[in-house]
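Sat 14:20. Reprocessing the chain from the morning session after the first attempt stalled halfway. Input below, unchanged.
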Amino acid sequence: MKAVVMAGGEGTRLRPLTSNQPKPMVPIVGKPCMEHIVELLRKHGLEDVIVTVAFMPQAIRGYFGNGETLGLNIEYSVEESPLGTAGSVRLASDRLDETFLVISGDALCDVDLTELIDTHKEKGAAVTIGLKSVENPLEFGIVVTDEEGRIERFLEKPSWSQVFSDTINTGIYVVEPEALSHVPTDGPYDFSKELFPLLLEMGRPLYGHVLEGYWQDIGNLDQFRQANFDALDERVQLDISGIRLRGNIWLGEGVEVDDLDAIEGPAYLGNYCRVAPDASVGAYSVLGSSVTLLERARTSAAVRASTAPSSGGPATSERTRTSTRAPRSATR
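Finished this time. Tokens:
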């Protein structure tokens, strides 16, 4: 089965992190968010991947290439003009002649994709939508299903007065190729706002499957920080690169630390970071590649990510002293 990774997001709410790189390239504990996603695909045996790109496609292509180093076969589909979520996948329909999976490259997760695919096949569905219960459903599309999991109703980004469920659309779908034939080619077209309601009206079998595991949209800076903190707490199962010390400290390649006792976990220090003498790294610190913590400086409950593209050279070393909101897990 092929997988389609939607990676066309610009990520305006994540600026300055996305000032010179697309949203899927924003780093989570040292790797672009999209790299964690394609590693999840490989874990579930999905090795043939089509990536839909739009904003700064060269940043993604330059980093991932043909996928060989990740054990994948990656191809690309480039939007010359905005086509919407369904339209971007429709553009690659000539390479999607069998059941396929769609997943976002900018939402961090470790969900069971194999179980989602198996459910789709068992139900004989035209589309199966991965669902998740969340505390605040206002930013997402709500999906209501019957006892058998068949979808009865959609509501896009409701107000609190309209909320009748906390089960939201994660943007992870298993789709039969026939569904794409209903996507017009003359303009933008969206999966959740247009295609799925159309298929529901047509009586096509649409099902929802509640996903177990972690899922977090990386839509704004608060969500970006929390995803990094959750990774440090191992609330999401990721392959974090580097040497692991004392259980919850990760050091990348070429890290210079005068005194390891100056690092309090959980923490991640990316490649070629430098912690000067008398500097200290507090809990819930994530330092991007080549960040330098100068003498007597301290960072705690903060993420310092490079705003340079991940495929480019190391970020300019600089002092890091910006603290942010403490992670949820640290305040309990």
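Confidence is low (pLDDT under 50) at residues 311-332.
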